[in-house]
Amino acid sequence: TPTTMFIIKYRKFFYLLSTILIAVSIGAMVFFRPWNIGIDFKGGSILEVAYPDGRPDIDTLRESLGTLKKSALVQATGADAYLVRTEALSETERQQLIAIVSDNGTTRIEERRFNSVGPTIGAELRDKALWAIFFVLLAIVLYIAFAFRQVSRQVSSWVYGLVAIVALLHDVFIPTGIYVALGHYFLDVQIDVLFITAILTVLGFSVHDTIVVFDRTRENLKLRTWKEFDETVGHSVEQTFVRSINTSLTVLLVILALYFVGGETTKNFALVLAIGVTIGTYSSIFIASPLLVTIEAWQRKRAERVSGK
To answer: At what angle do helices 193-223 and 289-308 cross, to 10 degrees?
Structure first.
């Protein structure tokens, strides 16, 4: 159809668009530093305190926290509470923090949570998070290479796996760059365990969407309904296009509901998911499948040059 063949025919335009988005995202990650790393990864303490009788002015609280002798960040959460993030605190310093936020006991407060993570544990969590992403990507390559081993005549089964990884890296860099840029200009965002969880969720959603298109391509290659590889891929995209869009829109509605109606602690998680699902759907349709066509055409031309010699 005109729509899907447009995607295949003008695939270089979509490659250029994605290249620009990735370059801008990497630029944001490089220039908007230091990143706001959560206490999960760098160590520190976080206190969530509510004020049943009405919370004080945030600037007043920040000024009072200057006496703590520890760097502290204050963020409003909900209608009546604040999140206070500091360096790692001893028990004495924690009691001093409680005294500051309660104005030496004259203001009624409710301590909702207090977490403290040492720098060693934070570094260990960071390393494990990076390893988790690496092993997820490796497992995806191995699975796709195995699953598509029977349709490797035009394109090797390993190419399917590597193309999926390219699409997934696309889906990691762009949401991360947008998230970092939003954190620099507009929002109080953090790179923490919730962020890594959101990225892993996006990877799972995106690769599922990509495999659906690849699987339809595999079926059509076996049936040999169309002679040309690019035509087969184009029709495979056509057959899964509406399903991919509808699935993504359904998921987005749930995520947006979580973002606008859910609690403050899940807002950033929902934000990363919303960006990631959108980018992941785009990459599955406009990047992954066209890349198969590009690689097949390059391999065919190279084979023709070799046979011509």
So the answer is: 50
The Cα–Cα gap between 151 and 192 comes to 41
Sheet holding 110-117, edge to edge: 72-77, 81-86, 44-50, 110-117
Residues 240-264, mean pLDDT to the nearest whole number: 88
Cα Rg, the chain, nearest whole Å: 25
**Amino acid 174: pLDDT:** 93
The residue among 72, 40, 39 whose CA lies nearest residue 58 is 72
Whether the per-residue pLDDT at 59 is higher than 80: the answer is yes
Distance of alpha carbon 280 from alpha carbon 146, whole angstroms: 23
> Which pLDDT does position 255 carry in this prediction?
92
pLDDT greater than 60 at residue 169: yes
Q: Which residues of 151-174 are buried (b: 16+ CB within 10 A; e: fewer)?
A: beebbbbebbbebbbebbebbbbb
Q: How many of the other CB atoms lie within 10 Å of CB of 291?
A: 23
Residues 209-222: tens digit of each pLDDT: 888 888 888 888 88
Alpha-carbon span 151 to 157, nearest angstrom: 7
CA distance 175 to 105: 43
Question: In degrees, to the nearest 5, what angle opens at C-alpha 137 toward C-alphas 184 and 207?
Answer: 85
Q: Report the run of H or E that residue 114 belongs to, with start and end.
A: strand 110-117
Asked whether the beta carbons of 8 and 290 are under 8 A apart, the reply is yes
